[in-house]
């Protein structure tokens, strides 16, 4: 009630109707934008959420054709997984930054990760591939293995994983985020299906 | 006063939120219109240039199938007269169209033109005339699914080749393989679907990788015309003989049970089978298929142009494009990879030529037996052996790439063909002896294509003259009809891009 009194003019004031109207407009616009920007999808781990921004299509396309498609989605690599609060904090921080740049139309043709994101990705690479990375026997027969392992980023060598060699907006001409390759449905035209089944 | 400040702040907030909402909507529209199609592609749109408006990279690379400069050891896109290179084939195909004219296929862009040119389609004098049914057009271009949709599948097959000349004018292209809305791969020929049904499989379960071979398997397969389908008697209905499986023996059993023959041999009177081009069947028995490689991986590899990666629609021999086709997986020198392919082809050819020799002699000896008064009963097992021996020869030869796609299977098939052909000749020698001819028969001179064709009684000069007359008179008239028909077909340009 006290909040109401602070925000809304008194009932006797001629401003009250106008104020109520504008507050309603604010709420309406907010809901509209939430729906249009699909803000709810960012709470999920679905990679489709990232393609809400069409500049992410080449990144999505290359991931979809990579070996990581079956095992990891965007958040598995690009969001920290040490604890749930840090996950959503980082997600919100990164997301708001991306959204701000996108809204300002300041996105680059080739998107590069910042240092904080690089650290997150590196840790996630190790989190999943820890067995390969920390094989003790490698220390025994690969010279300098420990230094190579701990002194470099994974993608110093694994340069194509998973977003390919050529990156940037110019790598796609049609900006079509691909349809999943094995959907239910016909691989023949409907008219042919009808004719063949009718026989 | 406080209310006034709140009011102004509220107005500013609403305005800024409005700007943000507008920005979101604009950005979403931008995503939608970043790809602006020039035309809306209709279902069964047969004109490749219309699809090319939206997909210029793919269309322009497909036009490169016009290039006929590449010739490999036994393939490539250059024209080759197979009968001239090997006149024995004239004897092997005596009584059939392939003894008149047998050229290696050029690129897809020539599909229509080469059908007009070949002597096998004859020189019809009217739309109801000519030796070939409309079924022959099935794999020549995207007009075929259009016609099947308009007329019905069996009704299309039931027409004449000549009446379809003015209907099928676009060479093999986009609508043969792609869905016009999603651009996903799609099967456009019912024979493949029906063949899967006959095998008890549902083609709609195919994965994307399988589809990258199955779109080729619509046409690069063995097939025959079944004129005895219930409810469609007399219609040369296109079918694949896969009911019992895809191997050379499975298909042979299938044909034998049907008592089917493509033609009766003019010399030996054997009921013959023509292996059309079992490319898909032979490929499936090879190591590349076993490793999950699809036809498109080698014959339509990925290409990068201006930073954009796309499937190269210049369908050709991978030997002309080893860097993109072979070296993606095989880190070897190009010359070594080519040498590896040629080795397999050369070794398969050695035995294939021996089998040809045996078969030619078998046909000629069988003819001698008939001349000496042999009976049907005496000849039947011999003719069956000739049929089976030549079926195995043709299975290996007509698939063209079989000796590389499946060298082990090809060697096996030719090996069993040699045995069968030799068995036929042993029987023939005994029969000749019984008929009083106890010495080798005299072999005619078939050292050139002309001599061989003369020997089997073909008047090739007349056939060629008739064809030239046809191409000079009727063909242009029918093609003009096609031009007039296509001029009436709409092009659904997208309104935002109308000129």
UniProtKB/TrEMBL annotation, chain A:
EC number: 1.7.2.2
Pfam family, one: Cytochrom_NNT
Top-level taxon: Bacteria
Ranges where the NapC/NirT cytochrome c N-terminal domain occurs: 14-165
Places the protein is found: Cell membrane
Gene Ontology cellular-component terms listed: plasma membrane
Transmembrane feature ranges: 15-34
A GO biological process held by the record: anaerobic respiration
Keywords for the protein's UniProt record, in alphabetical order: Cell membrane, Electron transport, Heme, Iron, Membrane, Metal-binding, Oxidoreductase, Transmembrane, Transmembrane helix, Transport
EC class (word): oxidoreductase
One term of GO molecular function: metal ion binding
Assigned protein family: Belongs to the NapC/NirT/NrfH family.
Protein name according to UniProt: Cytochrome c nitrite reductase small subunit
Taxonomic source organism: Hwangdonia lutea
Name of the coding gene: nrfH
UniProtKB/TrEMBL annotation, chain B:
Entry's localization field: Cell envelope; Periplasm
Annotated residues for binding of substrate: 223, 277
Cofactor(s) recorded in Swiss-Prot or TrEMBL: heme c; Ca(2+)
Pathway(s) it belongs to: Nitrogen metabolism; nitrate reduction (assimilation)
Pfam families, A to Z: Cytochrom_C552
Cofactor: binding comment: Binds 5 heme c groups covalently per monomer.
Binding residue positions for heme c 3: 108, 216, 219-220
CDD domains found in the cross-reference section: NrfA-like
Single GO biological process annotation from the record: anaerobic electron transport chain
Residues the record lists as binding heme c 5: 288, 326, 329-330
Residues bound to heme c 2: 174, 177-178, 313
GO MF annotation, one: iron ion binding
GO cellular component: outer membrane-bounded periplasmic space
Keywords (A to Z) from UniProt: Calcium, Electron transport, Heme, Iron, Metal-binding, Oxidoreductase, Periplasm, Signal, Transport
Enzyme Commission number, as recorded: 1.7.2.2
Annotated residues for binding of heme c 4: 295, 298-299, 405
InterPro entries listed in its UniProt record: Cyt_c552, Cyt_c_NO2Rdtase_formate-dep, Multihaem_cyt_sf
Catalytic activity: 6 Fe(III)-[cytochrome c] + NH4(+) + 2 H2O = 6 Fe(II)-[cytochrome c] + nitrite + 8 H(+)
Binding annotation for Ca(2+): 222-223, 274, 276
Ligand binding (heme c 1): 136, 139-140
Domain of life: Bacteria
Family: Belongs to the cytochrome c-552 family.
Function: Catalyzes the reduction of nitrite to ammonia, consuming six electrons in the process.
UniProt-recorded name of the protein: Cytochrome c-552
Gene from which this protein is expressed: nrfA
